[in-house]
Amino acid sequence: MKKILILSIAILFFACNSEEPPKIYPNNPVQTTKGIKGVWVTNVASTALSSLNAIKETVQTCKKSNITDIYVVVWNKGRTLYPSEIMNKEFGIPIMESYAGRDPLLEMITEAHKEKLKVHAWFEYGFAASNGQQGGVILQKYPQWAAKDVNKNLLVSSSGFEWMNGINPDVQNFMKSLILEVVKKYDVDGIQGDDRLPAMPIAGGYDDYTVQLYKTEKGVNPPTNEKDPAWQDWRANKLTEFLGDLYKAVKATKPNVIVSMAPSVHPWAKDNYLQDWPTWLDKKYCDYVIPQIYRYDFSAYSQTLKSQVSYVKNSADRSKLYAGVLIQSGTYNASNQFLEQMVNENRNNYVSGEVFFFFEGLKYNSEYFTTKYASK
């Protein structure tokens, strides 16, 4: 008994006199491993995907910039950026016209895997059918898929996106079929939705299908106030249920494929696009989330980052939150100093990785990415 007592005192002594543990925010476990270092690669305002040689150069730029994960666009403007049997069967357009005869997704996977970089298929447009085309070929063939506002008009967001109804099971099955097509056909490391998947502008939900579904479940018509809390929660929950179904389907097909989401920041995302990502994490409907913390000064970035961390419901899920960081958009470029401040602030809040929007910014900030970022 005495030996046990002496041993206990010794253990207590050494514990009290050992190096002070790092300070952490309440309920925020320290990250023991480095997280992702990602970048979004798009076909807008960039020639990164314009040819096989361009893709090779893109991969080399990513490697030199210490990027580990490439999120490459595979779905926008109502087109796929890979040859799709589904799109060919449904609309007679197997791939975005400018990429006919090629397979940019396969090219990217092949080149990136040579350098041991991961490739995620980014379904950028999500439930948006088109932009400035009144729904394009999708809603022209399937007008019943359209999302509608309270006046029964086609749902169009302020940025010009024209929306499918993400609560309609036919729309859900269409989107799920495209995602599973990629998972089955390609050696992709992950798939990703963003602020349009799963999502719907809060003004939506007044199409015939959704109105009838709500009436069946609730016994009354939906409120005409699009921001009614119960009506908002009901629609957000429907999108959450879709994500849960999608997650299970992807994992049943290939368990090792990562399912990630890059929504807008909370609670703005839920209040405007019905994206309840804290619940997505809590229900384990995605492997990690990357809120788009797109800010133009350090104070705003720091404040928003900390708020996003605080919205994670379960402290064990803190390691599943990464930061979406804006480095280039239009004529805007983040300075190297601001970029370093944002990355350092991520680590100070135990956010172990980030994804940058977007690829072209790697070139502008090459001084930072090719030198300092390697040690972060």
TrEMBL record:
SUPFAM superfamilies: (Trans)glycosidases
Top-level taxon of the source organism: Bacteria
InterPro entries found in the cross-reference section: Divisome_Glycosyl_Hydrolase, GH, GHL10
Recorded coiled-coil stretches: none
Keywords: Signal
Occurrences of domain Glycosyl hydrolase-like (ranges): 36-324
Pfam family, one: GHL10
Protein name (record): Glycosyl hydrolase-like 10 domain-containing protein
Record organism: Flavobacterium anhuiense
